[in-house]
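COMPLEX REQUEST
Ligand: magnesium ion
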Amino acid sequence: MKSRLLFLGPPGAGKGTQAHLICKDSGLLHLSTGELLRDEVSAGTELGKEAELIMNKGELVSDLIVLSIVEKRLSKYDEGWLLDGFPRNLSQAKLLKDLLEKISQPIETVLLLNIDDQLLIKRMLSRGRKDDNEEVISNRLKIYRDQTSPLVDYYKNLGILQSVNGVGTVEDVNSRIKKVLN
Ligand code: AP5
Ligand code: MG
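STATUS: Structure written out below.
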């Protein structure tokens, strides 16, 4: 199986759910910048305090903060990883490219989870995380459209993008992903 992966997709697409399953089976390191930022918030660190204000509005935390969180972990781990929720814009994608070149670990596959807005909103509202309310969800979706979705063409042009239908049960989506990754 491919061992340097990136999961791309709108908020609520199932990136975290599917990344967890893939990493549990394969032993890859699951690196979710959203989870790592929420850990900083729970721990009450300075970084967490700064990030919380931004996350509660559904905006993006600064590229350098996020990069430092990822870099610390990736550089120590060379047995394969799955990036979830990072990069989030072209500038992060370029910073990541430089980092991966430095450690000679290029991304093998970018997996895009496709799903329509109505279903995303329904999933997030029924989860009820702190940033899962209508106003913040609509901002997260706008930021995805404006800043993150250009990454689809960026990775398509590099020839490493694969799309998977994210609609269906967790198990259905998981088997589609495994087919693509194997
Ligand atoms: P982040 O935590 O990455 O949130 P997100 O991208 O908005 O996406 P979610 O985690 O909400 O969705 P997901 O695709 O992981 O879906 P999940 O599996 O949870 O980021 C949060 C914030 O942190 C950002 O807004 C930003 O402020 C900041 N941040 C993070 N990374 C950053 C970065 N790189 N740069 C700058 N800022 C950054 O599923 C959603 C729900 O649906 C769950 O309840 C799940 O149980 C359910 N579900 C999943 N699959 C299915 C299915 N097949 N059927 C039914 N229900 C399902
Ligand atoms: Mg997530």
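REMARKS: The mean pLDDT is 96. Strands lie at 4-8, 29-32, 81-84, 109-114, 161-165.
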